[in-house]
Amino acid sequence: MEVKIGVQHAPREIVLESGQSAEDVERLVGEALAGKERLLSLTDEKGRTVLVPADRIAYVEIGEPAVRRVGFGAI
Q1: Residue pair 41/57 in contact by the 8 Å Cβ criterion
Q2: Cα dist. 63→23, 34, 72, 75 in Å?
Q3: CATH number of 2-63
Q4: For the whole prediction, is pTM greater than 0.70?
Q5: Cα(42)–Cα(57) distance, rounded to whole angstroms?
């Protein structure tokens, strides 16, 4: 699933494809924003970990991955 994270005082958002479920990502974001965790830690599909300081999170957008179509013509 695609996750977009807006960071305060940063001109670009962080975009990653995560293998985690939407519920897991939402739980981790909630814990970070509630002050239970100092860092939001997410893992992308390639196994890389993204860490964002919880006090710098501006927004988090959780969505489904876009289906990429290859070829020509309508199906």
Answers
A1: no
A2: 11, 22, 26, 24
A3: 2.30.30
A4: yes
A5: 13
